[in-house]
Structures are given as structure tokens and as C-alpha cells.
Design a protein that fits this description.
Helix content is 25%, strand content 31%. With 124 residues, the protein is of the alpha/beta class. It has a single domain (6-123), classed as 3-Layer(aba) Sandwich (Cytidine Deaminase, domain 2), CATH 3.40.140. It has an eight-stranded mixed β-sheet. α3 links the parallel β4 and β5 (96-100). The protein is globular. The structure holds zinc ion. Zinc ion is lined by residues 72, 74, 81-82, 85, 98.
């Protein structure tokens, strides 16, 4: 079983709301988990304007073992990881979420270290 198997519905809702508010810019944040469930998103200040540079800075942060990976939004309708996204995934964390327009409950996807899609259950 994967280390991370779920995400709290409220956390996902917040991620989708912030994605929508940030549009047409990207937002980036870090994901924290407790007992295998993503419970918190930490928005990184100053990341709303620059997408790729913001993402790049993520893996340079100090090690925090409650941080399991990253989340960011795409201002397009594709949640497929870009080249730089894949590069980030393999350097940092093991669970990553990408959201895309229109930022509803179907417009997100989670990926592992290798950029392969993973199933994450939404829990209350
Ligand atoms: Zn991306």
C-alpha cells in the first residue's frame, strides 16, 4: 500500500478554490499528510506570479518529513505533468497533485515520484 492513500475533501476543496482564484496564473504549494491522508496545503508566498520558477524553488526548501509532495495548478485544461514538473517530482517528495481548468472535482490528478498517475481517495 502506498504511504499516501487519501486526501481530505476540505483540503481538496481549498486546493481547487485557490487554483480557480489564481487563474490565469498558476499557484504552487506543499502538501502535508497525517497517517496517509493529505490534510493540509501550505501555500508558498510569492509564488502566484511566476510558475516555473516557483515550482523550482519547492525542492530547495528545508526538509520537513510531514511534507509529502507538491501541488500546483495549470491554467489550461490539462493536468498532465510538463517536463519541468516531472523533473521536480523525481527530486522532491513522493505525492504530487496537479489541478487544471475548470477546477472542479474532476479536474485534478495525483502522480508519484516517477510521474505515474496514482489513485487517491477523497475522504471526509
Ligand atoms: Zn505543471
Amino acid at each position: 500500500m502506498r504511504k499516501i492513500w487519501g486526501i481530505k475533501k476540505n483540503t481538496l476543496k481549498l486546493i481547487l478554490e485557490v487554483s480557480k482564484e489564481s487563474y490565469p496564473k498558476e499557484f504552487a504549494g506543499l502538501l502535508r499528510a497525517e497517517k496517509g491522508v493529505i490534510t493540509e496545503v501550505m501555500l508558498l508566498p510569492g509564488t502566484l506570479s511566476g510558475s516555473s520558477s516557483a515550482i523550482f524553488q519547492l525542492h530547495m526548501r528545508p526538509i520537513d518529513f510531514t511534507v509529502v509532495g507538491s501541488v500546483h495548478s495549470h491554467p489550461s485544461n490539462s493536468f498532465s505533468p510538463s517536463g519541468p514538473d516531472l523533473h521536480l517530482f523525481e527530486k522532491f517528495g513522493h505525492t504530487h497533485i496537479i489541478t487544471c481548468a475548470p477546477y472542479d472535482y474532476d479536474s485534478w490528478c495525483a502522480y508519484d515520484f516517477y510521474g505515474s498517475k496514482i489513485e487517491i481517495e477523497v475522504v471526509d
